[in-house]
Amino acid sequence: MRAMQSPENQCALPGLDPKGEQRMRVARQWVTSHPEEWAYYKGAARRECAHTHDRKASPNRCIYSVRIRFGIEIANALAPYLARIAMEQDPDIRMRVARSDADGFTTARLK
After folding, report:
1. Does a structural domain hold residue 45?
2. Taking CA 30 as the corner, what is the angle to CA 24 and CA 36, rounded to the nearest 5 degrees?
3. Is residue 36 part of a domain?
4. 95 in helix, strand or coil?
5. What would the mean pLDDT of 4-14 be, rounded to a whole number?
6. 57 beta partners
7. What Rg, from alpha-carbon coordinates, does the chain have?
8. Percent of the chain with pLDDT over 90
9. Which of 33, 34, 82, 99 is such that its CA lies 20 to 30 A from the CA of 3?
């Protein structure tokens, strides 16, 4: 089995990855338009980081907790984007994420 390479953390050029760019835009709009839900998401991520063996949170679990608490719909496709936005905004939040097309549109560093 081949070892997984660490991400290069290089930004993509705008316009060259329309799917990643579009989803990141949608995720950032969701964060802006749902401040209470976003604060809860980040709180759930911080709590999970404090209590897991690897000190990382699950993006899907954070989304699920927001769905339960607020009774709203959030597309699973936004999970990697919201995770990276949370890591950008709070360096104490670490998420269990793999490389994705979201990496080119964030300043978050995967650890």
Report:
1. yes
2. 140
3. yes
4. strand
5. 52
6. 95
7. 14
8. 58
9. 82
